[in-house]
């Protein structure tokens, strides 16, 4: 059975589109999520167990050997994540369009 791992910072599954990083306590995250966490958190700790983390204890890029069937599962998850992202962007654009049309109707030129 394939391992379905996710980043506990952003709650997205790991896939081939983003690098994965690890901390010495063993927890793994998207590399970019971990970078943002370390830049914004009040103290440098693991997002899961709050163990102190130094920059030298972060493994910046992990590599996984995936079986062919696991790659297809990851592709499905990647596409689901992409679809959700595009739907959110579309929804935001629709809201902006609605707001702009409402404002132009309220305030005639």
Automatic annotation (TrEMBL):
InterPro entries: TRAIP_ubiq-protein_ligase, Znf_RING, Znf_RING/FYVE/PHD. GO terms for molecular function: ubiquitin protein ligase activity; zinc ion binding. SMART domains: RING. GO terms for biological process: protein ubiquitination; replication fork processing. The keyword Coiled coil applies. Keywords: Coiled coil, Metal-binding, Zinc, Zinc-finger. GO terms for cellular component: nucleus; site of DNA damage. Residues 7-50 form the RING-type domain. Residues 69-96 form a coiled coil. This is RING-type domain-containing protein. It comes from Mus spicilegus.
